[in-house]
């Protein structure tokens, strides 16, 4: 078992995520390298100051622009929109590993015989007109339906059929306009070697092991206990998770990590051991100031973040306004090896202004001259990312 101090564990996590010291990930290739490292990044359509996946990448990728992600998804097709940890973006190379879900969706659709005629209408429409959204196609139908993967079909038959065809793998998301998804035939864009590949993992156990290992890599350090980091892994209850951990340890694919003053044992992937050796030498990496996405991979287990960093974060977007402690869309604020607070930032694109509505510092954090310079640089970079020319700090006006 590896022994780490609290600081070493924090350094390990931040270095692994490319959030400490010099930028490790650069440009489009850096995006691809990072997504392959973490397996998936969560997608969320809400755009107050950038969509969730874009927020994850802007904090890590030197020179990141939103167009880069769009190109990797909808031009190069190296990345793909696909359910993983809820709505997500994954490497296209991982397509075969989710075949069991597509097979389940195909079985699910057999319960709705009326679906076949509707799917044939969709095929014909796409053949004649190209990629479509649910607004482009009006299908008639009246049946209770629920998608096999993630979405409720609701009362919009066109959307229900498109999402079901997406869940079976017949359609992929061709592109998005704002929050609207446009679908096209998957085999036109996914390489035949991938789209026709069988699931590489035959048993549920092997699949669970693959996904547990992938989620550990997505966060960096994780414990074997209930966690939001395991969301949307079908059939992974405590018993299955325990067995996956047991076998991964036996196969020497993960390593146990004890962190000072923490009761629970954490685990990291074996391929991350060189980074463990780096932090055991107690380096002094250069500090950066970054705004972190609410659904950032680093934040997937907020109890873990609280124990390691002493930072208690709740995303209050679904909290009634009168019960919020901070605000609707508030981002954790990272400086060096610590979360120093949180900030509410709004991109007012019509005026080209990034509005910093408020900053709430953690107890004991003093806004020194050095910190103010780092914050200013952070917000200026964030403004450029959002296409804003000026920064307005409302709380200082």
TrEMBL record:
InterPro entries: AlkZ-like (IPR009351). It comes from the Bacteria. This is Winged helix-turn-helix domain-containing protein. It comes from Paenibacillus zeisoli. The lineage of its organism: Bacteria, Bacillati, Bacillota, Bacilli, Bacillales.
């Amino acid at each position: 078992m590896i022994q780490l101090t609290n600081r070493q564990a924090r350094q390990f996590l931040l270095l692994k995520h490319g959030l400490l010291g010099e930028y490790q990930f650069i440009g489009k290739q850096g995006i691809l390298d990072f997504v392959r490292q973490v397996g998936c990044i969560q997608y969320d359509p809400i755009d107050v100051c950038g969509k969730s996946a874009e927020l994850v990448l802007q904090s890590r990728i030197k020179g990141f622009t939103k167009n880069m992600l769009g190109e990797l998804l909808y031009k190069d097709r190296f990345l793909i929109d696909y359910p993983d940890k809820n709505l997500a973006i994954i490497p296209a190379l991982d397509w075969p590993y989710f075949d069991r879900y597509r097979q389940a969706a195909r079985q699910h659709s057999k319960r709705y015989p009326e679906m076949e005629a509707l799917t044939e209408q969709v095929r014909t429409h796409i053949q004649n007109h190209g990629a479509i959204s649910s607004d482009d196609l009006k299908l008639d139908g009246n049946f209770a339906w629920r998608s096999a993967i993630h979405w409720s079909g609701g009362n919009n038959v066109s959307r229900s059929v498109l999402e079901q065809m997406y869940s079976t793998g017949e359609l992929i998301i061709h592109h998005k306009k704002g929050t609207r998804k446009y679908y096209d035939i998957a085999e036109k864009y996914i390489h035949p070697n991938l789209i026709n590949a069988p699931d590489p993992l035959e048993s549920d156990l092997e699949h669970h092991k693959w996904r547990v290992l992938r989620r550990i890599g997505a966060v960096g350090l994780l414990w074997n206990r209930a966690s939001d980091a395991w969301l949307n892994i079908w059939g992974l209850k405590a018993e299955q998770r325990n067995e996956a951990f047991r076998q991964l340890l036996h196969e020497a694919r993960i390593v146990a990590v004890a962190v000072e003053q923490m009761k629970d044992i954490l685990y990291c992937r074996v391929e991350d051991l060189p980074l463990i050796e780096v932090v055991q030498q107690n380096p002094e990496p250069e500090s950066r100031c970054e705004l972190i996405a609410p659904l950032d991979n680093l934040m997937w287990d907020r109890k873990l973040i609280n124990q390691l960093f002493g930072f208690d974060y709740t995303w209050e977007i679904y909290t009634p306004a009168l019960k919020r402690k901070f605000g609707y869309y508030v981002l954790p604020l990272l400086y060096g090896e610590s979360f120093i607070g949180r900030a509410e930032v709004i991109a007012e694109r019509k005026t080209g202004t990034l509005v910093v509505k408020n900053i709430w510092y953690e107890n004991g954090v003093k806004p020194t001259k050095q910190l103010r310079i780092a914050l200013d640089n952070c917000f200026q970079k964030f403004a450029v990312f959002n296409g804003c020319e000026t920064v307005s700090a409302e709380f200082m006006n």
